[in-house]
Amino acid sequence: MSTLGKVYLVGAGCGSYDLITLRGKSLIEQCDVVIYDSLIDSSLLDFAPDNAEKICVGKRAGCHSETQENINTLLVEKAKEGKIVVRLKGGDPFVFGRGGEEILSLQENNIEYAVVPGISSAIAVPELAGIPVTHRKLSRSFHIITGHTADDLLPENMSAYARLDGTLVFLMGLKNLKQITDSLIKNGKAENTPAAVISNGASTNQQVVRSTLKNIAEDTEKQNLKAPAIIVVGDVANFDFSQTLSLPLQNISVTVTGTKRFTSKMSSQLIKLGASIKKLDYLNVIEYRDNSQLDNALMSITDYSWIVLTSINGAEIFLNRLNKLKIDIRKLAKIKIAVIGSGTASVLEKYGIFADLIPESYTSKALGNQLAERVLQNEKVLILRAEQGSAELSEILTDNNINYDDIKTYDVLSNTEITDNTQINTDFITFASSSGVNAFFENGYKISPKTKIICIGEITANVLRKHNINDFQISKTSNVDGITDTILREV
């Protein structure tokens, strides 16, 4: 039996992560390694298992990227390690994606592979800009051409392109736009042929310039369009079939910070409303696995009258530890549960446990005050939470002479290996915790003047102030819905 792994060449589609095929998504969810291009929607990486190796190989104009030869070698090496490898490629693997070269390398090394098609930018970008590449009685064919090297634009090639009746779609040709248009005209294409250039297609930064073949280069230069861009030449460029159905956050960009769990949940909600998302999931939840204090408390769980959980992470660690210690959940029958937030409560509800106390205000202070009113003199409280949990909760219990054990079950630490652009230029940025704010600035990030800041709770707000940030909005409720509602009000 072969010990070699398998390689799947998966087209990521063009634009938002949800344009990938179901088959492609399924393969990402099962892979050991994902080797991806820089132009894919980074949300696709969230589908990969937490322990999957994620390797960016670039392939973006004007930026450093791996050579194709190195990518081929990498695919072979990972497969020879027995790994399931997803080669995640922007658009479609075979539309100028050099997927064929990768397959030849796999064939030479007797490595099994499969291909999953994706939506090519050659079709999707014009389409999302309102330009169909074909239209009945106007353009019955379309031709996809690379435009970024001298060999692609040889005179004999341009002469052939100029004689074609269908739509011409040039990829990666922005820097050669003037050469392309002049050559087409020189070889007989009418000067008044409609033409369009789409920059940053399928994104909130999309720009479209429509003109004639004669004037498109000059008009594009005036608008200072940047790569990546697609050039469309033909009568269909006169159409504007841009969608008329709009979403509340369409053309709004949001940077979401925090843990992978939070940024995924927050992003999913905002994307449904039409927002474009940049995720900074630089916080890692580190569970304290050798936690004798927690284990001892759980083994004596019936000594407590209340269990207090302040986060989704804390609730999951609590339930998982009960299971690992084989503690029957029925032992919780006479114990009351207090939580902060509907998200934490929903974790418990999956196990048939319904919280007895959820304060209307999702804060440690509100929870502490309500516990002070409800905990009886002879009752004992078990608090399970993060290392950096708010001191307000324990201070309130102490001030009210309530007997409690405060056990730390995890910490939230910053991932210091951050290489992203440190300047945030999106319309909004969100912070869900004080640790998220500190990690953001410790890692050298900066916020542009145009970016509106939304945060959860006064504790997070106070940390923003410590970093000399005073212009921000605090969501009315300290959860994903609260942040979303605040953004909607600010748009």
Describe the model.
It is a single chain. With 491 residues, this protein is of the alpha/beta class. 32% of the residues lie in helices and 23% in strands. The chain is built from 16 helices and 21 strands. The chain has helices spanning 22-30, 68-80, 99-108, 121-128, 155-163, 177-186, 216-222, 260-272, 292-299, 312-324, 342-349, 364-374, 391-399, 434-442, 457-466, 480-490; strands at 6-11, 33-36, 53-56, 84-89, 112-116, 142-146, 167-171, 194-199, 207-212, 229-233, 253-259, 276-287, 306-309, 336-339, 380-386, 403-414, 423-424, 428-431, 446-447, 452-455, 473-474. The strands form 4 sheets. A 9-stranded mixed β-sheet has the order 14-13-15-16-12-11-18-20-21, sandwiched between helices. Helix 5 (155-163) links the parallel strand 6 (142-146) and strand 7 (167-171). Helix 2 packs across helix 3 (99-108) and helix 10 (312-324) runs parallel beside helix 11. The longest helix has 13 residues, at 68-80. The radius of gyration is 28 Å and the shape is elongated. It starts with 5 loop residues before the first strand and ends with a helix.
